[in-house]
Amino acid sequence: MRFAVIDLGTNTFNLLIAESDENESFTKLFNTKVAVKLGEGGINEGYIADVPFQRGINALKQYQQYLLDYDVKQTFAFATSAIRSASNGLEFVAQAKKIAGITITVIDGHEEAELIYHGNKMAVNMSEQISLIMDIGGGSNEFILANHETVFWKNSYLLGAARLLEKFKPSNPITEKEVDDFNNYLREQLVSLFEATKDFPPIELIGSSGAFDSVIDIIAGEFGTTVVNDIQTEYEIDIEHFKRVSKKIIASTIQERQHTTGLIEMRIDMIVISFLLIDFMINEFNISNFRVSSYSLKEGVISKRLGLKSKPSFS
Fold it and tell me: pTM for the whole thing?
């Protein structure tokens, strides 16, 4: 069966078109993303502003054509933080159906975290020991404490990069005081995560796609290591390499980031927030092992909704 999964994130709409087979595997046929930045100008006020609203609808119209071109039989479209928390989120869902013919399911943070776990489990060789899975979205962050067979704890927080960028409006470059204020805010907001790690202490951090893909690419640009590719689904991150790159990115200006090898344009404004979030987790939880999964929610949908477990082949 030929199917599609659309992840309607706050910053990016991601489309994956694939074909399943009788061996519980699938072949990826087409993969693309569009930067919609739904949170621009309204995320902390709880609505989608007119310009990003239209960007989102235009992206779905474009996706509708891809669905037709590939003769997709079934489409799974899931909306996350920006749409579920917006006062006009249901209006967006209605317009998507009316204009692009795409039916969207709005999921809560706990289901989002559950799907992220299943996507990561498909990509990463997890063990009996507990990993802390982290997904940095535009509107929310999901944290999951789990091993290869069990989710022990999970939660979603309104701490996405777009939301935090709009809240803190950091200087260019960010100041030490602003970094301290940012970290203190995270400590206040993540009390339940700190409590959970007392019961389920993690041995590593697993970063879930998205901003973590840029982490890999930036480190590769700096040290000549592996870049994200279509075949590899998990990446080992050298903590010392990460710390050196993180220090450089956090101290950078927007103009300097425009010339950073491996950093795509759509993440230039939010990458400092992402690195601050990762830095915070590594420092607060004394993380020495750090991996990145190239799978996230889309692949979690494939695993949970379609029951496909095997890593894909590529057409």
Answer: 0.95
Pairing mode, strands 26-35 and 74-79: unpaired
What pLDDT, in 10s, does the model give residues 191-221?
999 999 999 999 999 999 999 999 999 999 9
Residues of the chain with CATH 3.30.420.40: 2-108
Its CATH architecture, for the domain 125-294, is 2-Layer Sandwich (3.30)
CA distance 55 to 38: 8
pLDDT in tens, 137-162: 999 999 999 999 999 999 999 999 99
- What phi, psi does 43 have (nearest 5°)? -65, -40
Domain 2-108: which CATH number of 3.30.420.40, 3.30.420.10, 1.20.120.530, 2.60.40.290: 3.30.420.40
CB within 8 Å of 180: residues ≥ 6 apart: none
Closest CA to 282 of 248, 237, 222: 237
Contact 45, 51 (CB under 8 A): no
Distinct helix (H) and strand (E) counts, the chain: 12, 12
Q: DSSP 3-state assignment of 290?
A: strand
Bridge-based pairing of strands 74-79 and 2-8 is parallel
Confidence category of residue 75, pLDDT binned at 50, 70, 90: very high
In the chain, residues under CATH classification 3.30.420.150 are 125-294
Q: Which residue, chain included where needed, has tokens 């006020």?
A: 45
For residues 260 and 283, give the distance between their C-alpha atoms in angstroms, rounded to a whole number. 25
